[in-house]
Amino acid sequence: RAARPRPGERIAVVGAGTLGMLAVQLLAASTPAVLAVVEPRAARGERARAFGATAALSPEEAEAARGGFDLVVETAGAPASAASSCLLARRGGRVVLTGMFAPGAVGIDPVHLSLSQLELRSVFGASSAAWSDAVRAFGAGLLDPGALVTHEFPLEDFGAAVALAGDGDPRTGKVLLRP
Fold first, then answer.
1. Partners of residue 139 on adjacent β-strands
2. pLDDT for 17-44, tens place per residue?
3. Cα separation of 44 and 49, whole Å?
4. Which of 41, 48, 58, 108 could form a disulfide with 170 if both were Cys (CB 3.0 to 4.6 A apart)?
């Protein structure tokens, strides 16, 4: 909603966690020319292709693409991801920051923002209109949260499910407990 994607744009999503994967699904519906995911874990980047991404870039590969995107949606919340997202956007491009940043985050260069004439939006929380949009996107099949589930456990295996969810394996998506 804040990103206002347009058909034919070059779009980058920074981060391929839950929010990044949902963003890829929704942005793919806007028929971008390019929908790249920037993700340091190759397995997650490749998984993003199944969600609609046309390319998966490591942070090092993304550096070569600086200034090449009309729209950049940051979902990672890593210390340097807001600043690096601004560098990915073309002059006059749009950047939407959705990640929550931990202490020690690298600052965004205000000179770069001004010289590049970037439009910068931050998103936290949602209005009731945004929830209505989300419900319509689910209803239209644009968002499939079930595709994020990589493992299912019966409720009595709660300990194993929590251990799997916390082990940091990039191939693990959402872990579902079934009653």
1. none
2. 999 999 999 999 999 999 999 999 998 8
3. 9
4. 41
Domain residue limits at 158:
144-179
- Tell me the three state secondary structure of residue 17: coil
Burial of 3 (0-12, 13-18, 19+ CB in 10 A): buried
| Per-residue model confidence as pLDDT tens digits over 87-142 | 999 999 999 999 777 677 778 888 888 899 999 998 877 778 888 888 888 888 88
30 in Cβ contact with 5 (< 8 Å): yes
Asked if the structure places residue 72 within a domain, the reply is yes
- Do 94 and 21 sit in the same domain of this protein? yes
- Same domain flag for 153 and 85: no
Q: What is the pTM of this model?
A: 0.88
